C-alpha cells in the first residue's frame, strides 16, 4: 500500500508524473481538477458550482472539496487497494488535515508527499503552451496569474506543514521528464516510514 500526494504549483507536472507513477506502482490516480472538469463537461450541479471558481482561478471551498474527495475515494474500493496518488489535493491546511483523517478512518495513512519545484516563469510558459494546444479553459494569462497567486497564498504553506511532518520530498521539476521521474522514484523507494 502506497498513498502519495503529488504536490506543486499549477503546471508543475503533477499530471504528467502521475501517469508514470500509475504504471510503476499500480496506483489509483485521483486528480481533483480532472474530477471537477469531468463534472463541468457533464453539466452536473457540482460542475456548475466548480466552473464559477475554476474560471476565476479560485479554489473550490474546502467543505465541498473534502466531500467530493471522500466520495471519489469510496467509489472504487478495489481500485484504491494498492494505494492512491492524490494530485491537486490537498491545496489548503484544512484539506491536508481532512486527508489524514480520511485515510486513518479507512485504516491507512499518507506515506509521502512529492513536491515538484519549478520556477514561476517556466510554469507560465508551460500553461500558455498547453492553453494553445489543448484549449484548457483556465490556461489563459489572466487566469494563470490568479492561479499562481492563489497557490502562493493558500497552497504553498503546505510545504512547511509536510516538512514538519517529515513527509515532504522535494524534486527539481524542470528538465527531462524521465529524469524527474527517476528522482521521484529514488525518493519513494528510499523513504523511511
Ligand atoms: P488542477 O487541474 O489540479 O490544476 P493545477 O493545479 O492548476 O495544475 P495543472 O493541471 O495545470 O498542472 P500539473 O501540475 O498537473 O501539470 P501537467 O502535468 O499538466 O486544478 C484546476 C482547478 O480546479 C484549480 O485552479 C481549482 O479551481 C480547482 N481545484 C482542483 N483541486 C482543488 C482542490 N483540492 N481544492 C480546491 N479547488 C481545487 O503539466 C503542465 C504542462 O507542462 C503540460 O502541458 C505538460 O506536458 C508540460 N510539462 C510537464 N512536465 C514538463 C517538463 N518537465 N518540461 C516541460 N514541460 C513539461
Ligand atoms: Mg493537472
Question: What's the topology here?
Answer:
Elements: E1 4-8, H1 14-25, E2 28-31, H2 32-42, H3 45-54, H4 62-75, E3 84-87, H5 93-105, E4 112-117, H6 120-134, H7 141-155, H8 157-165, E5 168-172, H9 177-190
Parallel strand pairs: 1-3, 1-4, 2-3, 4-5
Helix pairs in contact: 1-9, 2-3, 4-5, 6-7
Bound molecules: BIS(adenosine)-5'-pentaphosphate (AP5) and magnesium ion.
The site of BIS(adenosine)-5'-pentaphosphate has 29 residues, from helix 1, helix 2, helix 3, helix 6 and helix 9.
Description of the structure:
This protein is an alpha/beta fold and 193 residues long. The protein has one domain: P-loop containing nucleotide triphosphate hydrolases (Rossmann fold, 3-Layer(aba) Sandwich), CATH 3.40.50.300. 59% of the residues lie in helices and 12% in strands. It contains 9 helices and 5 strands, in the order βαβαααβαβαααβα. Strands 2-3-1-4-5 form a 5-stranded parallel β-sheet. Helix 1 crosses helix 9 (177-190) and helix 6 packs across helix 7. It starts with a strand and ends with a helix. The model has no long low-confidence stretch (mean pLDDT 97). Magnesium ion is lined by residues 14-15, 31, 33. Residues 8, 10-16, 31-33, 36, 53-54, 57-60, 65, 88-89, 91, 95, 126, 130, 147, 175, 177, 180 line the site of BIS(adenosine)-5'-pentaphosphate.
* Class computed from helices, strands and strand pairing: alpha/beta
Query: How are helices and strands ordered from N to C?
Result: EHEHHHEHEHHHEH
* Neighbour order of strands in the largest sheet: 2-3-1-4-5
- Number-wise, the strands total 5
CATH class value = Alpha Beta
Low-pLDDT runs of 5+ residues are: none
Measured distance between first and last alpha carbons: 12 Å
Instruction: Specify the overall morphology.
Output: globular
Query: So, CATH architecture?
Result: 3-Layer(aba) Sandwich
- Overall radius of gyration: 16 Å
Indicate the CATH topology.
Rossmann fold
User: How many DSSP H or I helices?
Assistant: 9
| Bound ions, cofactors and other small molecules, one mention each | BIS(adenosine)-5'-pentaphosphate, magnesium ion
Amino acid at each position: 500500500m502506497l498513498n502519495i500526494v503529488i504536490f506543486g504549483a499549477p503546471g508543475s507536472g503533477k499530471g504528467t508524473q502521475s501517469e508514470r507513477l500509475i504504471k510503476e506502482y499500480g496506483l489509483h490516480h485521483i486528480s481533483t481538477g480532472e474530477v471537477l472538469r469531468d463534472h463541468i463537461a457533464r453539466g452536473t450541479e457540482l460542475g456548475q458550482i466548480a466552473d464559477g471558481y475554476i474560471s476565476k482561478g479560485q479554489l473550490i471551498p474546502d467543505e465541498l472539496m473534502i466531500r467530493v474527495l471522500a466520495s471519489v475515494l469510496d467509489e472504487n474500493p478495489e481500485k484504491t487497494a494498492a494505494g492512491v496518488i492524490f494530485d491537486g489535493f490537498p491545496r489548503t491546511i484544512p484539506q491536508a488535515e481532512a486527508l489524514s483523517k480520511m485515510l486513518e478512518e479507512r485504516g491507512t495513512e499518507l506515506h509521502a508527499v512529492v513536491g515538484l519545484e519549478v520556477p514561476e516563469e517556466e510554469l507560465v510558459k508551460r500553461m500558455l503552451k498547453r492553453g494553445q494546444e489543448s484549449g484548457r479553459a483556465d490556461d489563459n494569462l489572466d487566469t494563470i496569474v490568479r492561479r499562481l497567486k492563489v497557490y502562493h497564498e493558500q497552497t504553498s504553506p503546505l510545504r512547511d506543514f509536510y516538512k514538519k511532518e517529515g513527509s515532504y520530498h522535494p524534486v527539481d521539476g524542470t528538465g527531462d521528464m524521465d529524469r524527474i521521474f527517476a528522482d521521484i522514484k529514488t525518493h519513494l523507494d528510499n523513504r523511511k516510514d
